[in-house]
Amino acid sequence: MAEILALVALILAITAMNRSRKNAAKLTEEIRKLRDELNLMKADGVLPAPPIAAGADAALPAPADATAADGEAPFASPWLQARQEAGGTGERAQGEAAGDATQAVEAPSSMPAAAAGGDLTPVRESLESRIGARWAVWVGGLALALGGIFMVKYAIESGVLSPAVRLWLAALFGLALVAVGEVIRRRGQPVAAQPFQNAMIPGVLTAAGVVTLFGATYVAHGFYGFMGAPLTFVLLAGIAVATIGLSLLHGQALAGLGLLASMVTPLLVSTDEPDPRRLFAYLTIAWLATLAASRFRRWQAVPALANAGLGLWALLYLAAADSVQVLPLTLALIVMLAGVALLWPGSQSPQDAMSAASVDAIADGTRQPSEAEIATAAPREASAMAAASDGAAMPASIRVMGRWQRILAPAFMPVSLSAAIAATLPAIVLAFLHPLPGSAAAAFAALALALAALGAFRAWALYPAVLAHLCALAGTMVLAGLSGRLALETLMSLPGQPSFDSAAPISVAGSAPVNLLLLLSAGLALVGAAGIRLWREKAPAHAALCSLLMAAFPVAIAALSFAAFGNLSLDVRHGLFALAVGLLFFAGAEVFSRTMTEERGRVAELPQWALVSGGFAFLVLALFALTDGLATTLLVTLLGFAMVLSTCLRPWPVLPWAMVGAALVVAVRIGWEPTIVGAVNLSKTPLFNQLLPGYGGPALLLALSAYLLRAWPGERARNLLQALACLFVLLAVAILVRHAMNGGVLDSAAPTLGKQAIYTLLAAGASAVLMTLDLKSPSPVFRYGSMTIGGLSMLSILSAHFFALNPYFTGELTGRWPFFNLLLVGYLLPGLAFAGLAWYARGRRPAPYVTLLALTGAALVFAWISLSVRRYWHGEGIADWKGFLQGETYTYSVVWLLTGVALLVLGLRFDARSLRLASAALVFVAVIKAFLVDMSNLEGILRALSFIGLGAVLIGIGLFYQKILSGRGAPPLGNTSAPHAPTGNAGESRGMLNAE
């Protein structure tokens, strides 16, 4: 009974479809006549002509000729029909046929409805059209598919006919649906059905038939056992591949259904002895079929899903297999990458995808948009492109959107991104599996290189290029730190693999993949060089990307290999490799620079910068591998200095920055090992030890580099080298003094004033460096960054130098030497540094900030003077528990008064109001001390001398001010309106005082 009902339903469906086709044909004819009538009315000026997306109007007959021939204006269809009967019928009919053919060719299934209709304005679909033209088709297709499934279900539950007969009927029903869909397709689809491409009747019928066939085949195997696993697998795979082939006729949705069927087939059919070679061979064939269909129809969604499916199968296999066979999986993924590179998208240019680059070029006015570009563009972009074709300017928002879309969403992005992710994730998992099996690391490297080659040889492969290098770096980190599945075991349970207790480091297990990692590094460098060579003229942006990746990731991989598996004292293998690759980088930079044209932009210059930077980085790695200790520090700085000397031969802007890079490397090395040669090997001789060349050598070479670049056009690099030279000089002095005052011992576990002084000097130098950069290249980051570092360092001085680490409170010994001791490092040198920073910031930073810097410097110098007095009276230990001596108390008064006078003289000499204020404050403190401390603590001659000295100094200061300010009738301090011009020395002094 069910079979009869299904047959009747099929006959009724075919009858209804034929009737619908005839009605659609009539409607199509009426629409064509109305369009002809509308074109004639436009020619007579009755209605304005809207923009036409496709080229249909070009093929229509000239309306003006028809109007001239008949002498009357067309208004209605009967008049148009009468005019056709009067004359010119054959010519008009021929033009109409050509116009329909042009429209059919230029309006593919993926074209928006507005473009296919000839108007860029999208037509709002009514509820009636949705129900009648879309939902009826979809629901009907679903009903047919369910009918096939129910027929299969009936075959299981009912006993009217044998199971074999019922399954054959279900299979015949599926074949009948496919055949009916093909018949309807061949009999033609009406032109009016173009807006309903996603609801085409032939495709829906074919999909329903495929589902029925797939279900019948699986039930025959899974429930009744009529077929064995091999035959069932072949049939299901054949149905899936055939579905993909039929998608060429019925659209992308059917291709997606076939792809889903092909990916699910291995899950539905299982054997007792699974063979990964057959599995991935089948998946590769299904993937190739999908890609071939996508190549003919220019699809992107289906191949992206195919890439994702293949990658997901690879991950499932790696997670579930007891004994992993790496070769089949690796070959399948490499075939996927090769197919994307050669088959689809292959060598297609980015313009073939109608990406945002077309919109950007049209917006810049470099060319006019074609009708096909307008037809296939998004609605917003299509409007702007149509306006540009009429001579209107492209809106700025559209231009910006096009540029960003061109960068972040290149052509064929769904295909390229899905392929990159599908290859990256299994590659990283393979790195986790090493050394069980041992070929896992080789498979990881092969996948990373294959993906990098795809990114380099195709201009649209932005994401494969980036993800390939990230994958290579991530896998290298895994190989350098883990031997088995330690990290992966925290996420899932993998059978047949070692546990946490049985896993051993790679270096211990004896399977360190050093040669493989070095080969991977060299391969990435070679791939990057090929990308630069291929795209430096055709696509400079992609060549720049290849150069940046080439400069950063190969050296990072080689450095990780050296740090994890190399001999840090002397490693010839890593050293020679880095030396050879570094020299090749410089040779590539020379070749590239010779081919650079005069008119080049910043993007075109990036490969030169990247090649030189990469070569310098590899040579630095070679020095670290082949040398050790002091030699490494000096040779790295000499290498940077050689780059500066090379500016005499090659005026490359990147060369001076190599010296900056060398200084940064040396700074990091000093931070890692302040003793340069190790605490055990450091000589205890003051000054003349390894610290002098280790710190002084880089400072000297930085100063020489800044001097040699005094005529260099790039001021930014020169000023930065000057600032770095000053920083290294201060650091060298501080570290030598610290070494001398600690008896030749530099390291200490507890925080000390000496260490804090080094940090303070570094902060002052960093603030000066940022200020220098801001002066030559103004930037809010440099400006506020320099003041932030200065402010934080002042807070650190207040908390650490004066309280937390002050030897007066901590009891720390200051050293045996009278002058070169802890007080010099902790107070005098930072005080001079902040005084110099304040002098450098005058006129360049806000006055309150400059005043705070100057006061901080003066406070540090005052602390050095006061603590030095205490050290003179108490020796190395100046702790507070020792109390104060009368001679010490008197000395404080004398020294403070002399310091106040010195600050006053300096303030007048340099016209620094902050120093004069500091002088007044210090003298005020001395006065308070004399009356509150000296009067009660001093006795005899010391008390008298204290007050006599104080009075003499105060009177001297008063006389000095009176002579300067009113000796020659000068106005009071701060009055800038002098009645007479200043003359002589008094006039010069008054001018300095009145400057502020």
TrEMBL record:
The keyword RNA-binding does not apply. Pfam families: DUF2339. The keyword Coiled coil applies. Residues 17-44 form a coiled coil. Keywords: Coiled coil, Membrane, Transmembrane, Transmembrane helix. InterPro entries: DUF2339_TM, UCP035905_mem. The chain crosses the membrane at residues 135-155, 167-184, 204-226, 233-259, 279-296, 301-320, 326-344, 407-433, 439-460, 467-488, 508-532, 544-566, 572-592, 604-624, 630-649, 654-672, 692-712, 719-737, 757-775, 787-805, 817-840, 847-869, 889-908, 915-935, 941-961. Residues 84-107, 975-996 are annotated as: Disordered. This is DUF2339 domain-containing protein. It comes from Mycoplana rhizolycopersici.
